[in-house]
Amino acid sequence: xxxxxxxxxxxxxxxxxxxxxxxxxxxxxxxxxxxxxxxxxxxxxxxxxxxxxxxxxxxxxxxxxxxxxxxxxxxxxxxxxxxxxxxxxxxxxxxxxxxxxxxxxxxxxxxxxxxxxxxxxxxxxxxxxxxxxxxxxxxxxxxxxxxxxxxxxxxxxxxxxxxxxxxxxxxxxxxxxxxxxxxxxxxxxxxxxxxxxxxxxxxxxxxxxxxxxxxxxxxxxxxxxxxxxxxxxxxxxxxxxxxxxxxxxxxxxxxxxxxxxxxxxxxxxxxxxxxxxxxxxxxxxxxxxxxxxxxxxxxxxxxxxxxxxxxxxxxxxxxxxxxxxxxxxxxxxxxxxxxxxxx
Amino acid sequence: xxxxxxxxxxxxxxxxxxxxxxxxxxxxxxxxxxxxxxxxxxxxxxxxxxxxxxxxxxxxxxxxxxxx
Lengths: 343, 68
Fold this sequence. Notes:
- The complex is a heterodimer.
- Chain A is of the alpha+beta class.
- Chain A folds into two domains: about 150 residues, CATH 3.30.1330.10; about 170 residues, Phosphoribosyl-aminoimidazole Synthetase, Chain A, domain 2.
- Helix content of chain A is about 35%, strand content about 25%.
- Chain A has eleven helices and 13 strands.
- In chain A, helix 7 runs parallel beside helix 9.
- Chain B has one domain: TusA-like domain (Translation Initiation Factor IF3), CATH 3.30.110.
- In chain B, helix 1 runs parallel beside helix 2.
- At the A-B interface, loops of A face helix 1 and helix 2 of B.
């Protein structure tokens, strides 16, 4: 364990520390983007990583960066979560990460050995992902933060984009929702140990297998569910693909205790920012309880992949994954009034 | 009514402060907060505990009256 409680040094943690989507989009959309014939995927469709054409044989480089403040107190586990989260963007593009660089912010006032433990946690997950961490950058900062810049090399025809979802597709989610809620409660010791364990197990689990198994099927579109919640990342796919996602809330995988904690108000700030940004694009049936809405707007840290494929493929995929938290959660419909409809 | 000043604190701390205060004063408390998120979360807690919270805004600060 750390010399101090890592989460006591931060205001917002994990992917819940993302800037509110409304403000972020306003700034990003106003920036001039230097175009290049090599840039295959950039800012425009809110994909998980950039795709850069390397040659005329379809070889591309895929690159992403992700870092955030701790959501757990154990520095080694924090390193694992941050690395699993950063590597996930590559898996969400259908790729295999190859090389990475560390990004570290660390306070001068706490034991430097905790930084070593964070980096060891990151190395542990990088090793599991067959990824070489070959450098990085460290600065002194009162709030600790850690993450990776990750690069993969693949063929362009193998890239999973977020714009290929087709009406009739099944929607698969590979990890349970509710880690933002559980992390918020855990910060003040209000979450049950069983809930915290489930959240930590989920956050430290690489999306590698979800991607590897997915490669055997015809994945039409993919993304991962992180700070902008299931609703935010689902809406990005729906928008880019020109479709509407119909999600069956009764099929959503949930971390034990998360709905009850939501009922008692243990909700991260990001949950409200996500709703504020999406309120006109997402619709909930009247019968859906408020805690379920919370779950659909809950910022996830190192969340699962959201995959789109034919119903037949989806059935086989879920059966092969053989995990209770990996489920078919809905279907893709023709574009309707909303980007997402929860029933 | 007992007052809990949770201004300047970010969630989930105001929820925990409300919980402690209601334990000591089950008849009800008043909670001061300065963000909409805290209004929502503290009200949620109070409702889940069977209270009837009412929030009144004044100059970007809220007084949440929590009683049965």
